[in-house]
Amino acid sequence: MRDEVDERVVDPAGPLDTRERRQLDVIRRFGTIGALLLAVGSLGAGAAPVFNPVWRLPVLGMFSRMTTVSLTIAFTGVFMIVLAWLALGRLSLPGRARMVSLPQMGRTLAMWTTPLVFTVPMFSKDVYSYLAQSEIAARGLDPYTVGPAEGLGIDDDLTRGVPTMWRETPSPYGPLFLTVGKAINWITGNHVVMGVAFHRLLALVGFAMIVWALPRLARRFGINPVSALWLGAANPLVLFHLVVGIHNESLAIGLMLVGVELALRGMPRTRPGGPFPPWQSGELLWYGIGAAVITLGAAVKIPAALALGFLGVMIARRLGGRWKHVLGVAGGLAVVFLSVLTITSLGSGLGYGWVSTLNTASAVKSWMAPMTALGFGAGGLGILLGLGNHIDAAITVSRMVGTLLGPLLAAKLLLDSLRWRLRPMIGLGAALGAVLVFGATVQPWYLLWAALPLAVAAGDIRFRTMATAISAGFAVALPPTGSTFDGRAYQLPYAYAGAVIVVALALFVVRRHIPTNLRRRPETVGVAG
Protein backbone atom coordinates (compact mmCIF):
# COMPACT_ATOMS: atom_id res chain seq x y z
CA MET A 1 0.00 0.00 0.00
CA ARG A 2 1.32 3.39 -0.98
CA ASP A 3 2.22 5.96 1.69
CA GLU A 4 0.00 9.01 2.02
CA VAL A 5 2.88 11.32 2.86
CA ASP A 6 5.58 9.64 0.85
CA GLU A 7 7.71 12.69 0.17
CA ARG A 8 8.96 12.59 -3.38
CA VAL A 9 12.38 13.82 -4.33
CA VAL A 10 11.58 16.94 -6.32
CA ASP A 11 14.48 17.77 -8.62
CA PRO A 12 15.30 21.36 -7.66
CA ALA A 13 15.53 23.88 -10.48
CA GLY A 14 18.64 25.95 -10.88
CA PRO A 15 18.92 29.59 -9.80
CA LEU A 16 17.73 32.38 -12.09
CA ASP A 17 20.26 33.74 -14.51
CA THR A 18 21.17 37.44 -14.75
CA ARG A 19 18.39 38.28 -17.20
CA GLU A 20 15.76 36.46 -15.15
CA ARG A 21 16.91 38.13 -11.93
CA ARG A 22 16.41 41.47 -13.65
CA GLN A 23 12.94 40.35 -14.68
CA LEU A 24 12.20 39.34 -11.09
CA ASP A 25 13.33 42.76 -9.83
CA VAL A 26 10.99 44.51 -12.28
CA ILE A 27 8.11 42.19 -11.34
CA ARG A 28 8.69 42.88 -7.65
CA ARG A 29 8.71 46.64 -8.16
CA PHE A 30 5.69 46.52 -10.45
CA GLY A 31 3.68 44.66 -7.81
CA THR A 32 4.98 46.87 -5.00
CA ILE A 33 3.93 50.03 -6.87
CA GLY A 34 0.52 48.42 -7.36
CA ALA A 35 0.29 47.73 -3.60
CA LEU A 36 1.24 51.34 -2.84
CA LEU A 37 -1.40 52.62 -5.27
CA LEU A 38 -3.99 50.35 -3.69
CA ALA A 39 -3.08 51.77 -0.27
CA VAL A 40 -3.45 55.34 -1.55
CA GLY A 41 -6.69 54.58 -3.37
CA SER A 42 -8.13 52.99 -0.23
CA LEU A 43 -8.24 56.44 1.40
CA GLY A 44 -11.18 57.30 -0.82
CA ALA A 45 -12.35 53.98 -2.26
CA GLY A 46 -11.96 51.72 0.76
CA ALA A 47 -14.66 50.50 3.12
CA ALA A 48 -13.94 53.29 5.59
CA PRO A 49 -15.78 53.51 8.95
CA VAL A 50 -18.73 55.85 9.36
CA PHE A 51 -16.53 58.28 11.27
CA ASN A 52 -13.67 58.49 8.77
CA PRO A 53 -10.58 59.84 10.60
CA VAL A 54 -8.90 60.73 7.28
CA TRP A 55 -11.64 63.15 6.23
CA ARG A 56 -10.16 66.19 7.99
CA LEU A 57 -6.48 65.45 7.37
CA PRO A 58 -4.64 67.75 4.94
CA VAL A 59 -3.91 66.19 1.51
CA LEU A 60 -5.01 62.69 2.60
CA GLY A 61 -8.56 63.90 3.13
CA MET A 62 -8.98 64.96 -0.49
CA PHE A 63 -9.14 61.33 -1.65
CA SER A 64 -12.39 60.87 0.29
CA ARG A 65 -13.88 63.71 -1.75
CA MET A 66 -12.80 62.28 -5.12
CA THR A 67 -14.34 58.83 -5.17
CA THR A 68 -13.97 58.19 -8.90
CA VAL A 69 -10.30 59.23 -8.85
CA SER A 70 -9.66 57.08 -5.79
CA LEU A 71 -11.41 54.14 -7.46
CA THR A 72 -9.22 54.58 -10.52
CA ILE A 73 -6.09 54.58 -8.38
CA ALA A 74 -7.30 51.51 -6.47
CA PHE A 75 -8.19 49.59 -9.63
CA THR A 76 -4.81 50.49 -11.11
CA GLY A 77 -3.19 48.95 -8.04
CA VAL A 78 -5.37 45.86 -8.32
CA PHE A 79 -4.50 45.33 -11.99
CA MET A 80 -0.79 45.86 -11.38
CA ILE A 81 -0.68 43.35 -8.53
CA VAL A 82 -2.56 40.74 -10.56
CA LEU A 83 -0.30 41.25 -13.59
CA ALA A 84 2.82 41.09 -11.42
CA TRP A 85 1.52 37.84 -9.89
CA LEU A 86 0.92 36.36 -13.34
CA ALA A 87 4.41 37.34 -14.46
CA LEU A 88 5.91 35.90 -11.27
CA GLY A 89 4.09 32.67 -12.09
CA ARG A 90 6.16 32.32 -15.25
CA LEU A 91 9.31 32.29 -13.12
CA SER A 92 7.71 29.86 -10.64
CA LEU A 93 6.37 27.30 -13.07
CA PRO A 94 7.17 23.68 -12.11
CA GLY A 95 9.46 22.07 -14.62
CA ARG A 96 11.48 25.16 -15.46
CA ALA A 97 15.22 24.72 -15.79
CA ARG A 98 15.62 27.76 -13.55
CA MET A 99 13.04 29.20 -11.20
CA VAL A 100 12.55 31.52 -8.24
CA SER A 101 13.98 30.27 -4.96
CA LEU A 102 12.08 30.16 -1.66
CA PRO A 103 13.98 33.16 -0.21
CA GLN A 104 13.30 35.15 -3.38
CA MET A 105 9.60 34.27 -3.20
CA GLY A 106 9.54 35.23 0.48
CA ARG A 107 11.12 38.64 -0.18
CA THR A 108 8.71 39.28 -3.05
CA LEU A 109 5.76 38.40 -0.85
CA ALA A 110 7.04 40.73 1.89
CA MET A 111 7.45 43.61 -0.59
CA TRP A 112 3.89 43.24 -1.86
CA THR A 113 2.29 42.67 1.52
CA THR A 114 3.89 45.50 3.51
CA PRO A 115 2.03 48.42 1.84
CA LEU A 116 -1.25 46.49 2.06
CA VAL A 117 -0.98 46.29 5.85
CA PHE A 118 -1.60 50.05 6.01
CA THR A 119 -4.67 50.21 3.78
CA VAL A 120 -8.19 51.13 4.80
CA PRO A 121 -10.28 47.91 4.81
CA MET A 122 -11.37 47.12 1.26
CA PHE A 123 -13.61 44.74 -0.69
CA SER A 124 -15.81 44.08 2.37
CA LYS A 125 -17.09 45.68 5.56
CA ASP A 126 -17.11 42.45 7.56
CA VAL A 127 -14.48 43.74 9.97
CA TYR A 128 -16.99 46.23 11.37
CA SER A 129 -19.37 43.34 12.05
CA TYR A 130 -16.52 41.59 13.88
CA LEU A 131 -16.09 44.62 16.13
CA ALA A 132 -19.81 44.99 16.86
CA GLN A 133 -20.44 41.30 17.53
CA SER A 134 -17.39 41.08 19.78
CA GLU A 135 -18.62 44.09 21.75
CA ILE A 136 -21.99 42.39 22.25
CA ALA A 137 -20.15 39.41 23.77
CA ALA A 138 -17.97 41.75 25.86
CA ARG A 139 -21.11 43.31 27.39
CA GLY A 140 -22.30 39.92 28.57
CA LEU A 141 -25.00 39.52 25.92
CA ASP A 142 -25.39 36.56 23.59
CA PRO A 143 -24.13 37.48 20.08
CA TYR A 144 -25.82 34.32 18.78
CA THR A 145 -29.31 35.61 19.60
CA VAL A 146 -29.07 39.41 19.17
CA GLY A 147 -27.65 41.56 16.41
CA PRO A 148 -25.68 44.82 16.71
CA ALA A 149 -28.77 47.05 16.52
CA GLU A 150 -30.48 45.28 19.43
CA GLY A 151 -27.37 44.53 21.45
CA LEU A 152 -25.59 47.88 21.14
CA GLY A 153 -28.25 50.28 19.96
CA ILE A 154 -28.74 51.75 16.52
CA ASP A 155 -26.77 54.91 17.36
CA ASP A 156 -23.68 53.15 18.69
CA ASP A 157 -20.52 53.90 16.71
CA LEU A 158 -19.84 50.19 16.19
CA THR A 159 -23.38 49.50 14.98
CA ARG A 160 -23.25 52.35 12.49
CA GLY A 161 -20.22 50.77 10.82
CA VAL A 162 -22.09 47.51 10.17
CA PRO A 163 -23.89 47.25 6.80
CA THR A 164 -27.62 47.75 7.23
CA MET A 165 -28.57 44.20 6.24
CA TRP A 166 -26.38 42.72 9.02
CA ARG A 167 -27.44 45.01 11.89
CA GLU A 168 -30.29 42.74 12.97
CA THR A 169 -28.56 39.37 12.42
CA PRO A 170 -26.71 37.32 15.06
CA SER A 171 -23.08 36.31 14.68
CA PRO A 172 -22.23 33.27 12.50
CA TYR A 173 -18.68 33.02 13.83
CA GLY A 174 -17.26 30.47 16.23
CA PRO A 175 -16.60 31.03 19.95
CA LEU A 176 -12.80 31.20 19.60
CA PHE A 177 -13.00 34.11 17.17
CA LEU A 178 -15.45 36.07 19.33
CA THR A 179 -13.34 35.41 22.43
CA VAL A 180 -10.31 36.90 20.70
CA GLY A 181 -12.56 39.71 19.47
CA LYS A 182 -13.63 40.42 23.06
CA ALA A 183 -9.96 40.79 24.00
CA ILE A 184 -9.43 43.21 21.11
CA ASN A 185 -12.44 45.29 22.16
CA TRP A 186 -11.20 45.29 25.75
CA ILE A 187 -7.87 46.73 24.55
CA THR A 188 -9.27 49.25 22.06
CA GLY A 189 -12.63 50.13 23.60
CA ASN A 190 -14.98 51.60 21.00
CA HIS A 191 -12.10 53.05 18.98
CA VAL A 192 -12.98 51.75 15.52
CA VAL A 193 -9.64 52.50 13.85
CA MET A 194 -7.63 50.78 16.58
CA GLY A 195 -10.06 47.86 16.55
CA VAL A 196 -9.58 47.47 12.80
CA ALA A 197 -5.79 47.60 13.26
CA PHE A 198 -5.87 44.79 15.84
CA HIS A 199 -8.13 42.64 13.67
CA ARG A 200 -5.71 43.14 10.79
CA LEU A 201 -2.93 41.98 13.10
CA LEU A 202 -5.00 38.88 13.82
CA ALA A 203 -5.48 38.32 10.08
CA LEU A 204 -1.71 38.66 9.59
CA VAL A 205 -1.15 35.96 12.21
CA GLY A 206 -3.36 33.67 10.13
CA PHE A 207 -1.54 34.76 6.97
CA ALA A 208 1.80 33.91 8.61
CA MET A 209 0.43 30.44 9.45
CA ILE A 210 -0.50 29.94 5.81
CA VAL A 211 2.96 31.03 4.64
CA TRP A 212 4.57 28.67 7.18
CA ALA A 213 2.44 25.65 6.33
CA LEU A 214 2.24 25.81 2.53
CA PRO A 215 5.85 24.94 1.59
CA ARG A 216 6.09 22.24 4.27
CA LEU A 217 2.89 20.54 3.13
CA ALA A 218 3.93 20.91 -0.50
CA ARG A 219 7.15 18.98 0.12
CA ARG A 220 5.16 16.18 1.76
CA PHE A 221 2.99 15.79 -1.33
CA GLY A 222 5.72 16.11 -3.94
CA ILE A 223 4.83 19.65 -5.02
CA ASN A 224 7.45 22.33 -5.54
CA PRO A 225 7.16 24.61 -2.46
CA VAL A 226 7.83 27.75 -4.52
CA SER A 227 4.94 26.89 -6.82
CA ALA A 228 2.68 26.25 -3.80
CA LEU A 229 3.59 29.61 -2.26
CA TRP A 230 2.96 31.38 -5.54
CA LEU A 231 -0.48 29.86 -6.08
CA GLY A 232 -1.33 30.04 -2.37
CA ALA A 233 0.11 32.88 -0.29
CA ALA A 234 0.97 35.23 -3.20
CA ASN A 235 -2.45 34.73 -4.78
CA PRO A 236 -4.19 38.13 -5.24
CA LEU A 237 -7.32 36.73 -3.60
CA VAL A 238 -5.27 36.05 -0.45
CA LEU A 239 -3.65 39.50 -0.52
CA PHE A 240 -6.88 41.36 -1.26
CA HIS A 241 -9.33 39.50 0.96
CA LEU A 242 -7.26 38.17 3.85
CA VAL A 243 -4.69 40.96 4.27
CA VAL A 244 -6.59 43.98 2.92
CA GLY A 245 -10.13 42.73 3.55
CA ILE A 246 -9.27 41.38 7.04
CA HIS A 247 -11.48 38.30 6.73
CA ASN A 248 -11.33 35.76 9.53
CA GLU A 249 -10.85 33.04 6.91
CA SER A 250 -7.18 33.95 7.33
CA LEU A 251 -7.11 32.64 10.89
CA ALA A 252 -9.41 29.67 10.22
CA ILE A 253 -7.55 28.43 7.12
CA GLY A 254 -4.19 29.11 8.77
CA LEU A 255 -5.09 26.96 11.78
CA MET A 256 -6.45 24.23 9.50
CA LEU A 257 -3.28 24.02 7.39
CA VAL A 258 -0.98 24.19 10.42
CA GLY A 259 -3.02 21.45 12.09
CA VAL A 260 -2.67 19.16 9.08
CA GLU A 261 1.09 19.80 8.92
CA LEU A 262 1.56 19.10 12.65
CA ALA A 263 -0.47 15.91 12.44
CA LEU A 264 1.56 14.64 9.50
CA ARG A 265 4.82 15.28 11.33
CA GLY A 266 4.21 12.10 13.26
CA MET A 267 3.60 10.05 10.13
CA PRO A 268 6.77 8.44 8.75
CA ARG A 269 7.41 9.00 5.08
CA THR A 270 8.42 5.36 4.71
CA ARG A 271 6.70 2.34 6.17
CA PRO A 272 9.12 -0.52 6.73
CA GLY A 273 7.40 -3.77 7.61
CA GLY A 274 3.87 -2.59 6.94
CA PRO A 275 1.25 -1.14 9.32
CA PHE A 276 1.93 -0.78 13.03
CA PRO A 277 0.12 0.97 15.89
CA PRO A 278 0.82 4.72 16.07
CA TRP A 279 1.66 4.66 19.78
CA GLN A 280 4.71 2.52 19.01
CA SER A 281 6.28 5.35 17.03
CA GLY A 282 5.04 8.41 18.93
CA GLU A 283 2.59 9.26 16.19
CA LEU A 284 -0.45 9.43 18.43
CA LEU A 285 0.65 12.66 20.14
CA TRP A 286 1.20 14.44 16.82
CA TYR A 287 -2.18 13.28 15.55
CA GLY A 288 -3.87 14.64 18.66
CA ILE A 289 -2.06 17.99 18.48
CA GLY A 290 -2.87 18.37 14.80
CA ALA A 291 -6.53 17.48 15.30
CA ALA A 292 -6.79 19.95 18.19
CA VAL A 293 -5.35 22.78 16.09
CA ILE A 294 -7.74 21.96 13.22
CA THR A 295 -10.61 22.05 15.71
CA LEU A 296 -9.50 25.51 16.84
CA GLY A 297 -9.79 26.55 13.19
CA ALA A 298 -13.34 25.17 13.18
CA ALA A 299 -14.02 27.25 16.31
CA VAL A 300 -13.35 30.28 14.11
CA LYS A 301 -15.25 29.09 11.00
CA ILE A 302 -16.80 25.65 10.83
CA PRO A 303 -15.64 24.55 7.31
CA ALA A 304 -12.18 23.83 8.81
CA ALA A 305 -13.69 20.79 10.55
CA LEU A 306 -13.85 19.00 7.19
CA ALA A 307 -10.05 18.65 7.33
CA LEU A 308 -10.45 16.17 10.20
CA GLY A 309 -12.23 13.74 7.89
CA PHE A 310 -9.40 13.68 5.35
CA LEU A 311 -6.75 13.61 8.06
CA GLY A 312 -8.60 10.58 9.43
CA VAL A 313 -8.39 8.94 6.00
CA MET A 314 -4.61 9.43 5.94
CA ILE A 315 -4.24 7.98 9.44
CA ALA A 316 -6.55 5.05 8.68
CA ARG A 317 -4.59 4.19 5.55
CA ARG A 318 -1.43 4.46 7.62
CA LEU A 319 -2.80 1.72 9.88
CA GLY A 320 -3.89 -0.54 7.05
CA GLY A 321 -6.91 1.09 5.42
CA ARG A 322 -9.57 -1.36 6.63
CA TRP A 323 -12.96 -0.28 7.91
CA LYS A 324 -12.02 -1.18 11.49
CA HIS A 325 -9.15 1.29 11.20
CA VAL A 326 -11.49 3.93 9.75
CA LEU A 327 -13.96 3.53 12.61
CA GLY A 328 -11.24 3.54 15.25
CA VAL A 329 -9.59 6.68 13.88
CA ALA A 330 -12.97 8.39 13.43
CA GLY A 331 -13.79 7.72 17.07
CA GLY A 332 -10.48 9.09 18.27
CA LEU A 333 -10.72 12.25 16.19
CA ALA A 334 -14.34 12.74 17.30
CA VAL A 335 -13.21 12.69 20.93
CA VAL A 336 -10.54 15.31 20.24
CA PHE A 337 -12.97 17.45 18.21
CA LEU A 338 -15.77 17.39 20.77
CA SER A 339 -13.41 17.90 23.70
CA VAL A 340 -11.63 20.92 22.22
CA LEU A 341 -14.85 22.43 20.90
CA THR A 342 -16.60 21.97 24.25
CA ILE A 343 -13.72 23.55 26.14
CA THR A 344 -13.68 26.46 23.69
CA SER A 345 -17.44 26.96 23.67
CA LEU A 346 -18.01 26.69 27.41
CA GLY A 347 -14.74 28.40 28.32
CA SER A 348 -15.71 31.41 26.22
CA GLY A 349 -18.98 31.71 28.12
CA LEU A 350 -20.87 31.67 24.81
CA GLY A 351 -21.93 28.02 24.77
CA TYR A 352 -23.08 26.24 21.62
CA GLY A 353 -25.37 28.99 20.36
CA TRP A 354 -23.14 29.43 17.31
CA VAL A 355 -24.39 26.12 15.90
CA SER A 356 -27.81 27.64 15.22
CA THR A 357 -26.42 30.70 13.38
CA LEU A 358 -24.10 29.00 10.88
CA ASN A 359 -26.49 29.76 8.03
CA THR A 360 -26.73 33.49 8.72
CA ALA A 361 -24.97 34.38 5.45
CA SER A 362 -27.86 32.88 3.47
CA ALA A 363 -29.63 36.23 3.90
CA VAL A 364 -27.52 37.37 0.92
CA LYS A 365 -29.01 36.38 -2.44
CA SER A 366 -26.02 36.57 -4.74
CA TRP A 367 -25.68 35.49 -8.36
CA MET A 368 -22.17 34.30 -7.48
CA ALA A 369 -23.71 31.30 -5.68
CA PRO A 370 -24.62 28.73 -8.39
CA MET A 371 -27.65 27.36 -6.54
CA THR A 372 -28.99 30.85 -5.82
CA ALA A 373 -28.38 31.81 -9.45
CA LEU A 374 -30.29 28.68 -10.50
CA GLY A 375 -33.21 29.79 -8.33
CA PHE A 376 -33.14 33.25 -9.85
CA GLY A 377 -33.11 31.72 -13.33
CA ALA A 378 -35.97 29.32 -12.60
CA GLY A 379 -38.05 32.07 -11.00
CA GLY A 380 -37.37 34.43 -13.89
CA LEU A 381 -38.39 31.77 -16.38
CA GLY A 382 -41.64 31.32 -14.46
CA ILE A 383 -42.35 35.03 -14.80
CA LEU A 384 -41.69 34.90 -18.55
CA LEU A 385 -44.08 31.95 -18.88
CA GLY A 386 -46.80 33.82 -16.99
CA LEU A 387 -46.69 31.56 -13.93
CA GLY A 388 -46.21 34.42 -11.48
CA ASN A 389 -43.28 35.60 -9.40
CA HIS A 390 -41.98 32.61 -7.45
CA ILE A 391 -38.32 33.60 -7.32
CA ASP A 392 -38.06 33.28 -3.53
CA ALA A 393 -39.60 29.80 -3.59
CA ALA A 394 -37.31 28.73 -6.45
CA ILE A 395 -34.25 29.98 -4.57
CA THR A 396 -35.34 28.09 -1.45
CA VAL A 397 -35.75 24.84 -3.38
CA SER A 398 -32.45 25.18 -5.28
CA ARG A 399 -30.60 25.97 -2.05
CA MET A 400 -32.08 22.88 -0.41
CA VAL A 401 -30.76 20.81 -3.31
CA GLY A 402 -27.33 22.42 -2.89
CA THR A 403 -27.38 21.72 0.84
CA LEU A 404 -27.71 18.02 0.02
CA LEU A 405 -25.31 17.94 -2.93
CA GLY A 406 -22.36 19.55 -1.16
CA PRO A 407 -22.10 17.07 1.74
CA LEU A 408 -22.84 14.13 -0.58
CA LEU A 409 -19.96 15.11 -2.85
CA ALA A 410 -17.71 15.57 0.19
CA ALA A 411 -18.63 12.06 1.40
CA LYS A 412 -17.88 10.66 -2.08
CA LEU A 413 -14.48 12.38 -2.06
CA LEU A 414 -13.74 10.94 1.38
CA LEU A 415 -14.49 7.45 0.10
CA ASP A 416 -12.38 8.01 -3.02
CA SER A 417 -9.50 9.19 -0.84
CA LEU A 418 -9.77 6.10 1.33
CA ARG A 419 -9.60 3.92 -1.78
CA TRP A 420 -6.67 6.01 -3.07
CA ARG A 421 -8.47 7.16 -6.19
CA LEU A 422 -7.12 10.60 -5.32
CA ARG A 423 -4.83 12.00 -2.69
CA PRO A 424 -6.64 12.96 0.54
CA MET A 425 -5.29 16.53 0.43
CA ILE A 426 -6.71 16.94 -3.07
CA GLY A 427 -9.94 15.45 -1.77
CA LEU A 428 -9.99 18.01 1.05
CA GLY A 429 -9.66 20.93 -1.34
CA ALA A 430 -12.28 19.53 -3.69
CA ALA A 431 -14.67 18.76 -0.82
CA LEU A 432 -14.35 22.24 0.66
CA GLY A 433 -14.97 23.67 -2.78
CA ALA A 434 -18.05 21.49 -3.28
CA VAL A 435 -19.60 22.34 0.10
CA LEU A 436 -19.01 26.07 -0.34
CA VAL A 437 -19.88 26.36 -4.03
CA PHE A 438 -23.16 24.50 -3.53
CA GLY A 439 -23.89 26.58 -0.43
CA ALA A 440 -26.43 29.36 -0.20
CA THR A 441 -23.85 32.13 -0.53
CA VAL A 442 -20.53 32.34 -2.33
CA GLN A 443 -17.99 35.14 -1.96
CA PRO A 444 -14.62 35.42 -3.76
CA TRP A 445 -12.67 34.71 -0.58
CA TYR A 446 -14.60 31.47 -0.06
CA LEU A 447 -12.61 30.04 -2.98
CA LEU A 448 -9.49 30.12 -0.81
CA TRP A 449 -10.82 27.25 1.29
CA ALA A 450 -10.40 25.04 -1.78
CA ALA A 451 -7.46 26.78 -3.47
CA LEU A 452 -4.98 26.63 -0.58
CA PRO A 453 -5.22 22.87 0.15
CA LEU A 454 -5.11 22.15 -3.58
CA ALA A 455 -2.04 24.36 -4.01
CA VAL A 456 0.02 21.95 -1.87
CA ALA A 457 -1.18 18.70 -3.43
CA ALA A 458 -2.41 19.26 -6.99
CA GLY A 459 0.50 19.86 -9.35
CA ASP A 460 -1.30 19.23 -12.61
CA ILE A 461 -0.68 22.05 -15.09
CA ARG A 462 -4.34 22.09 -16.11
CA PHE A 463 -5.39 22.67 -12.51
CA ARG A 464 -2.77 25.39 -12.12
CA THR A 465 -4.00 27.12 -15.29
CA MET A 466 -7.64 26.93 -14.22
CA ALA A 467 -6.88 28.14 -10.69
CA THR A 468 -4.82 31.01 -12.08
CA ALA A 469 -7.61 32.13 -14.41
CA ILE A 470 -10.29 31.93 -11.70
CA SER A 471 -8.13 33.76 -9.15
CA ALA A 472 -7.24 36.56 -11.56
CA GLY A 473 -10.84 36.92 -12.73
CA PHE A 474 -12.35 37.18 -9.24
CA ALA A 475 -9.52 39.46 -8.08
CA VAL A 476 -10.44 42.19 -10.58
CA ALA A 477 -14.22 41.68 -10.56
CA LEU A 478 -15.09 42.89 -7.05
CA PRO A 479 -15.00 46.68 -6.43
CA PRO A 480 -12.79 47.69 -3.49
CA THR A 481 -15.42 49.78 -1.72
CA GLY A 482 -17.18 46.81 -0.17
CA SER A 483 -20.55 48.36 -1.03
CA THR A 484 -22.99 48.73 -3.92
CA PHE A 485 -23.02 51.60 -6.39
CA ASP A 486 -26.74 52.42 -6.26
CA GLY A 487 -27.27 55.81 -7.86
CA ARG A 488 -23.63 56.16 -8.91
CA ALA A 489 -23.00 53.18 -11.16
CA TYR A 490 -21.34 55.51 -13.68
CA GLN A 491 -18.25 55.61 -11.44
CA LEU A 492 -17.28 52.01 -12.17
CA PRO A 493 -16.80 52.21 -15.97
CA TYR A 494 -14.88 55.47 -15.60
CA ALA A 495 -12.64 53.95 -12.93
CA TYR A 496 -12.05 50.75 -14.91
CA ALA A 497 -11.28 52.68 -18.10
CA GLY A 498 -8.87 55.04 -16.37
CA ALA A 499 -7.08 52.15 -14.65
CA VAL A 500 -6.76 50.20 -17.90
CA ILE A 501 -5.13 53.19 -19.63
CA VAL A 502 -2.63 53.73 -16.80
CA VAL A 503 -1.75 50.04 -16.58
CA ALA A 504 -1.35 49.80 -20.36
CA LEU A 505 1.18 52.65 -20.21
CA ALA A 506 3.00 50.93 -17.32
CA LEU A 507 3.15 47.66 -19.26
CA PHE A 508 4.59 49.50 -22.27
CA VAL A 509 7.40 50.83 -20.05
CA VAL A 510 8.36 47.39 -18.68
CA ARG A 511 7.52 45.34 -21.79
CA ARG A 512 11.12 44.21 -22.28
CA HIS A 513 11.27 42.72 -18.78
CA ILE A 514 8.15 40.54 -18.94
CA PRO A 515 9.09 36.81 -18.84
CA THR A 516 7.97 35.04 -22.02
CA ASN A 517 10.26 32.04 -22.56
CA LEU A 518 9.30 29.30 -20.10
CA ARG A 519 12.48 27.26 -20.75
CA ARG A 520 11.05 24.07 -19.32
CA ARG A 521 13.01 20.91 -18.62
CA PRO A 522 12.20 17.84 -20.69
CA GLU A 523 10.20 16.31 -17.82
CA THR A 524 7.87 18.18 -15.45
CA VAL A 525 8.44 17.37 -11.79
CA GLY A 526 6.34 17.85 -8.70
CA VAL A 527 3.06 16.72 -10.25
CA ALA A 528 0.95 14.91 -7.68
CA GLY A 529 -1.62 12.49 -8.98
Automatic annotation (TrEMBL):
GO terms for molecular function: glycosyltransferase activity. The chain crosses the membrane at residues 30-51, 71-93, 105-124, 192-214, 226-247, 284-314, 326-347, 367-387, 426-449, 492-510. It is a multi-pass membrane protein. Keywords: Glycosyltransferase, Membrane, Transferase, Transmembrane, Transmembrane helix. It comes from the Bacteria. It is found in: Membrane. The keyword Transmembrane applies. InterPro entries: MptA/B-like. The keyword Cell division does not apply. Signal peptide: none annotated. Belongs to the MptA/B family. This is Polyprenol phosphomannose-dependent alpha 1,6 mannosyltransferase MptB.
